Amino acid sequence: MSSAQSTGPTHFDDDDYPAYTMGRAAEMLGTTPGFLRSLDEAKLITPQRSDGGHRRYSRHQLRLAARARELLDQGTALDAACRIILLEDQLAEALRANEELRERHEPPPRN
Prior knowledge:
By secondary structure, the protein is mainly alpha-helical. It has helices spanning 22-29, 33-41, 59-73, 78-104, and strands at 20-21, 48-49, 55-57. A hairpin with a 5-residue loop joins strand 2 and strand 3 (55-57). The longest helix has 27 residues, at 78-104.
């Protein structure tokens, strides 16, 4: 079986796979690399590092960065924006976990 036919997980489906370089991430977001560094310093996103030490970002991190840019553009301070985003992310995760538990414990439909 060739790798193209493999049924295992792929990085295409992995929202947390660090696929994007800093330059590409900044380009996709319409920001500067300095903006991404500031989010790293603020502890909103912590990019993984390549073997050469370069920052690499995941799609999930890019969504958080895009939300930060949106809040900053609306006049929210960086520290407040980071707190808002972290709370939004935690809420979304809790809602997903809650839905999974609900689906697992739903009684089977009656015929």
